[in-house]
Amino acid sequence: MKRVVMVGLGSTGVAMVKSLLHRSDVQIVGAADRNPATTGVDLGVVIGESETGVIVVDDPAALPSADLAIVATTSDLNQVTHTLIPLLERSYNVLSICEELAYPWSSHPEVARQLDDTAKAHGVTVLGSGANPGVLMDTLPLLLTVLTQRVDRVVIRRRTNMSRYGAILSKFGLGLTPGEFADAQASGSVVGHYGFEQAISSLASGLDWSLDSIEVGQVTPAVVSETVRLGEHVTVEPGQIAAVTHSARGLVDGRAVIDLEIMFGFFDPSDSVTAGDDYLIEGSDQVIELASSVGFESFLSTIAAAVNAAPAVVEARPGLLSMGDLPVRALASKGALQRAEVAL
C-alpha cells in the first residue's frame, strides 16, 4: 500500500482526498493546507466525512514521510516549484495538478531542469497530471495518432462545464460583467487557461514535430447570461459572463498544425452551444475523428487522471516525467481497487 500526503485542500484537493480514501492501494497519512480554518482539524472533518486520525498542518515541512506527495495548489509553475523542490529533497515522489508542470521543457526549461535534476538526485519522480493538460489535448490525441502513419494536422475543440470549480474560476472571468471582465483582463487577473503551451509542446514532441512557434490568444467572453446559473461554489447572475473562449496554435511555416480551442462555461439549455468535445486528426492515409456529445467533464476527469496516476508515479523511473511517459496500463482506471462507491 502506497503512503500518500496531500498538499492543498481547495475544492479539487478535497475531491481527490475523498477518492483516495476509498482506494485499497493507498493510505493518506498527512495533509497540509494554508487555510487557517483547516489547520489542526481532522482531515475527515475538513472533507465532510468521518474522522481519519490525520490532522491537517499548515506547512508541508511538517508532513510525515510517505511514498507520494500530491500537490493541488496553483497553476503557476514558478510558484509551485517552491513547494515541489523541498518535497523532492525529502525523497517524496510528487504528483501535481499544476497545469504548467504537465510538460514544462519548452515553456520553463530552467525550472524543468531543476526539477528533473533534483528528482533524479533523490531517486524519485515528479509528474504533472490532470485532464487538460495531461490527457485531453496531449496524451489522448497522441494515442489516437497511432492509427495513421503520418499526421498532417490536429484540431481539437472543447466546450467544458466549469460549474463544479471554485477559486479557479476567477482566472477565466466567469461571473463578471463585461465591463468588469475588461478591467480584470487589463489588470492581468483574467488570464484564461493555463497549459496550452505545455499541451502543444507535449503533443509536438510525441510526434517529433519541430514547431516554429506557439501562439496563445486572449481569452474572450462567449456567453453573457440572461438567467441565474448555479454552480457548486459560484452563482452566475443575469448580465454576467457565463462562458469564455480561449485558443492556441502550434505553427510550422505559418500553418497551424496543432489547433486547440476551449470554451469554459456554465451552460444552460437556452444557449446555442452545449458541452462537448471534438477531435480531428488529419492523417496522410485517413482522417480520424472522435466526438463526445456531452464532453469530458473537466473536474471529474482531473480527479480521475490524478488519482489513477498516483500509484504509477511511485513505480516510475526517477526524474521529471509527463503523462505520455507512463505506460497506458499503469494509468488505466483501477475502479476495482475502490473500497466503496465514491461520491465526488
TrEMBL record:
Gfo/Idh/MocA-like oxidoreductase N-terminal domain mapped to chain residues: 3-126
Stretches that traverse the bilayer: none
Domain 2,4-diaminopentanoate dehydrogenase C-terminal: 136-330
Name the record gives this protein: Gfo/Idh/MocA family oxidoreductase
Organism: Nocardia beijingensis
